[in-house]
Amino acid sequence: MRFGVNYTPSEGWFHHWLDFDLDSVRADLDALAALGLDHIRVFPLWPYFQPNRALIRPRAIDQLVALADAAAERGLDVNVDGLQGHVSSFDFLPAWTRTWHRRNLFTDRDVSDGQAAYLRTLAAALADRPNFIGMTVGNEVNQFAADPHPDPDRITAEDAGRWLTLMLAACAEGAPGRIHQHASYDAAWYQDDQPFTPGHSARLGDLTAVHSWVFNGTAQRHGADSVPVEHHAAYLVELSKAWADTAHRPVWLQEVGAPAPLVPAGRAAAFAEATIGNVLDCPDLWGVTWWCSYDVSRDLADFPELEYSLGLLTGDRRPKDIAAALAEAARQPYATPTVRGTALVVPADPARRSRCAPGGTVFDAYFRLVADGVRPTTVLDVRADDKEHLAVRGITEVVTPDQVLPTPQGGR
């Protein structure tokens, strides 16, 4: 079981790449290693590293390698996100994809060739480092492909699948044998018209990554100390298994955090303890990577308010109570959880995936089961009668949402 953190530098946020200070990075990593964590997820900002389609800056690559080596000296492994892409409400796209040079990020051949070259270069630069876990194609790149983005690059699900296959192949060419995957925000699981689908997340790449944020309506509907809030990460892990083609595909809880004020600061540590405890009860979990390492400095403008306080540590590297909660979880011996034998049926049709979102019938039925003491997983409706599939997964009971939820008033 892996425990780590998404590395947001204490000085300069991700803009630190413009004024890279290895001594500051080392001090940051010292404080993270002291918590007993074993890995970090690192975010090069794409326009800083590849400002022109034909220019991948050698000095930027050298700085990334230096950061990875500093992490290795402190016993930390490194996963690298390539296409940033989108982070903390800001878009970071190179000028050669926008305005006068506007080209679709996912279907334009020149853009795809440039992206693939960039990912291949990053992966190759770290391929010989023992502490290099592998590449994530990019951070929540699916948000560029549909509403509510203000200026989306419209594509089909087929386009998304082709693009992901090409990008993952570039990562593997640069660093064969490493773990390479991609990461979507939860619209992939919840939004009917999102072209990046649950199948893409659960079938492409070496493992499935899920990002759990309870500001998606879960906390607003149910409250900070509710069953859905404390089990939301576990729900996404188990929801992903319905679409996986292999019974024990690893799932990485790659982002989870305690967003104030929906999760009040005084409850953040308890939220972390509950979330981690519940997700550790999910079989086939690869690891937990908390968002994030350091608070965003109040000297930086225009972030959403919640982004300023998500760190495990303050900007002057002092650990908060929530850091102690993660450190304690990392110290505890890991016991492999038992199989989840009860499966809730979910629609295989991506155009009906909103039933899995907060307020949907699948979502509500899942948490009704949890509240009743059941440890549910999920199964696609097209596999619900497949005895071989159920047996391989250890599923002994299949239930539908209408068997779990009370009949609405009036019998409808």
Automatic annotation (TrEMBL):
What is the name of the protein in this document?
Glycosyl hydrolase
Stored Gene3D superfamilies: Glycosidases
Q: Keyword Hydrolase on this protein?
A: yes
Give GO MF terms, alphabetically. hydrolase activity
InterPro entries recorded: GH (IPR017853)
Give the top-rank taxon of the lineage listed in the UniProt record for this protein. Answer: Bacteria
Keywords (alphabetical) are: Hydrolase
